[in-house]
Amino acid sequence: MKIKLLAVASCLLFMVQTNVFAWGTTGHRVVTEIAERNLNKKAKKNLKKLLDNQTLSYFANYPDFMKSNPDYKQFDSWHYLNLEANLSKEACFEALENSTDKNLYKRSLLLIDELGEENFTKAELQEKLYYLIHMIGDAHQPMHMGRPEDLGGNKITVEYFGQRTNIHSVWDSKLVDDEKYSYTEYATILNVLTKEQKKEIQSGDLKDWLYDSHVKANHIYNEVDRNRTLRYEYQYNNKAILEAQLQKAGLRLAKILNEIYG
Questions:
Q1: CA separation for the pair 194, 25 (Å, rounded)
Q2: How distant, in Å, are the alpha carbons of 46, 107, 119 from that of 43?
Q3: Is 95 exposed, middle or buried (0-12, 13-18, 19+ CB in 10 A)?
Q4: Which of 199, 241, 201 is nearest to 217 (CA)?
């Protein structure tokens, strides 16, 4: 994979028009901003060197921008892993291990391993990093651990404040965007935990975190089965889950990056 920043810029319009990506531009930048604020000194220094002094948030949406490039179509399945409903933790872990090699779980593990190696060019390592920081965000958007029959909620039509949409899109961007914060403002609000609280959130590994998203997805499905007209009550009932998932994604991404680069 080669860096194509010019191609990224040309894809901005495509992203605005489709609006079907995990967390949307704001959400992914919130995640990477939280992560950057929780890097240790060595990791921060090494990442600045790798990224030519640019911030993580600048590249947070690169994989979504590149979805408009036919050469990157093969990477679409890296953004999600749909499983059957209401799995136990053990059954979920088994499903993760038995899944295809081209999904959110397996490719994230591979990228983590590859970013710790030295037999790649700087350009290759940069693009691998762009994908990893994005995919860890995807791992915490519950509908990216949705169900195969409805494509992670993309086929579940809802009315959101009078607008016809789907439940996946509601969780991708609408709930985040309706808070009306910039990504730096939202990161500041969510980065207020104690060291002990952050350490607790960072415990476990990717399988544990994906199971947690699976459980949250079950909750979302149960709610939308009872009511598909979503308004202020839905926002109020899910605000805590939304913000906790953004918070977890940022802190856990920081843990991964500190382990690789710190």
A1: 27
A2: 5, 22, 19
A3: middle
A4: 241
Over residues 66-118, the pLDDT tens digits come to 888 888 888 899 999 999 999 999 999 999 999 999 999 999 999 999 999 98
The strand pairing partners of 229, in sequence order, are: 159
Q: What is the largest distance, in Å, between two alpha-carbon atoms of the chain?
A: 53
Residue type, 235: Q
pTM confidence score: 0.90
Cβ–Cβ contacts within 10 Å for residue 120, how many? 14
Residue showing tokens 């958007």: 141
- Rounded to 5 degrees, φ, ψ at 62 are -50, -50
Residue type present at position 140: H
How many CB atoms lie under 10 A from the CB of residue 41?
8
Q: Are 190 and 246 a contacting pair, CB within 8 Å?
A: yes
